[in-house]
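Exercise: predict the fold of this chain.
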Amino acid sequence: MVLDEDLDAQKTCYFLSRSTDNQKRTYQPDNETDSVETLNKTKKERDIFDVEPEGIPIQDSSIPFVQLLGGSEPLETAKLRWDMYQEAWQTQQTKINELLYNTNLKVLDQIADFVNESWVADSEIRIPSAIIFPGSNISNHLRLFSQINRRLEQEKHIYLITLASRDCSNLKAVLRNIVSAILDDERNHIFEGAVPSFIKRQLKHNRTFRYDFDILVDWCINQVKLGRVNSITDLRIVISVQDSDSFDISILSQLIEMVHSYLDQVPFKLILSVATSLEIFQEKLPKSCIRLINGKRFDIETMDNFQQIADQTVFAFEATTILLGPKLFENIIQRQKTSTESVDPFISSLKYSYMSHYYSNPFSILTQITSEDNEAYEAFLKMHITQKHIAALRMLPSFKNFIEEKVKSGDFNGVKNLLELDEHVTSLIHVSVEDFREYAQNLISALKLVDFIQNTLSNVVQKKPMVELYLPAILGKLADSALLKELMVSFANSTAKDLLQVLDLLKFGDKFNKQLHEAFLEEFGDRLDIMAAEVKKAENAEIIADDLSMAARRHGTVQRESSKVFPGLIKEIVGIVSQYFFGCFTPYMNRLFWEVFVYDFSHLHQNVFVPHQRPAIENALLEPSHYLGSSYLNNKFGSDPHISILYSLYRESGVQINIYDWFMAFKDSLGKPKIIKTQSHDSSGKETLKAEGAIADSEIERMAKVTHYGTEEGLSIFEEYTEEEWSKITLCWFYQGVAELRLLGLIRDNRRKYECVEKVIWKGL
């Protein structure tokens, strides 16, 4: 049997959707004597026909993962997957945060130094203002402002007030926000001993006067009286306007004038964030206002290029790193190029990949196997690997390919042992995991070497970043690509100086590149020393400087003198590097148990980050359990939300839907419950309504019934309904559901038949 034809018959899991002809319905009692126990029993019998869930939730709320393999996964193994995910992502998150912070570290220090500059109590001077240009990408602004706030919080006696245009509709609101921020900080301050009387008086200021800056003057004086600062000059009150472009110009101008009028009494510093250009911002502000500002420009280095983060995460394979599959990686890169300009979506996609891999892959624990100690290896397998794991491993595509290769080679006894004896499968785990880990490290190292070579050689015309090289590399197509062949030709025609630079980069690379460098030294050590001496001698004498410039202009058409001296050595090294690339750039699917390390479910990312509206709405209406979670499972009646039931009936109907028929089908789908009446409803609320004479007792009870239907609280409130009461309640639910479907654009009024509504036909329904 051909392997591809046999895949459908040996799938490890299936995704089943309910057909429109067999929708799950709430039990409909035959008569009114059926009890709650009968309802629950019938619900359990009906649930037998539902698809068994792949995972069972863990009772411990601190572990959001589930026990996989139909719930047969040991609890300790599920906890291990959760711990491994936290460790793996924390490693990546630390590197990302460090990279993002270091990008603007110099500018942040400059802003802190600017704020700490001396303050002069003189109303004639201009306001010291930092004009920050964070770039046009607004999605990066929030992270930048958080970095600025954290940096200023490290300084002593700096009080930062952040203003946003949405909270500042007028000048009074702006001043109130500033004063309130200072006084709220004062109120939260912990005093040792009794609170001074003048502080008590200040904290009792009427809120209607909180827009008076005289309060700030008194507050600054009080800081000196309390001994928190030696003088007012040690204080800094920093007003940060995060979106100056969105501020009403008249309000911003009045704020600047107000700050300037109190500059001789309050140590103000101003921070203005400008997303546009300085010229546009100056045109908006009145000239009288500009004359009051002593601005200092700070340009922020925005990291819109996610390449730097990818280099530190995707292209830095470690013990806790997973590989992104080709489909998923292509999806992420394409979205970064066409839809987003920020690094935040890339970070979110990377985090979701790690979370999904450890959440849904029971074999992700195998990456924990790194020890060479056989006893530790055996103990790990005994604790975490069950027969269910072994059976699932046999169903993996990589294992099937492995068996196919053994069948082709005639090793039938080996095939029989692998299919029947579990110990033969477990013996492959450690070897396969270590083999794939070495393959991944070699793949990443070879990619970095390609990047080194094309960035070092001066005669390379076509250069591509690693994010574009990764996809053909992991698929095994890069070794035979025209790009790599042209690169090797350029490498062979390079100068001795370029070759030595590449070797120096290998020396400072990762472990595998260092090993390659040591192999070159061992094989060609003496000849490389002679080459280095000749290059140094030529540089010192400046003999070949002009020749190198001419050669660069000719784009390599003429062999350089240094390469003519050592043509054999350069070709030998290029040949070894080419063979190294051919050995590294092989398809990942050729490795046994590659599923342990590779995550390649691109459709999940598509549904989460860029979902299509229609499929998302359809899925939510047809399968509400995917979105409601525990609240759906706790539903004592086992009923879908009313809009879901109406939508199921909507799909089964024609273009025109008779309202009465739709309502009767909806009512029959629900079934009238019979619940024992108790006295647990809120009597206080009832008495309040009676006193006001707003609603009668019976109406209050009906409202409570409608509100709590299908919930645990509702079980203690419902009483037995008459048919008329039940019809009224179901009619309310029906009207609500129809209104929601109309709001979604699924139905509209029929102008010809008033008793019907008309489907707004969606393609595919």
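Check your answer against the key: The chain has four domains: 75-98+306-436, 105-299, 438-595, 613-759.
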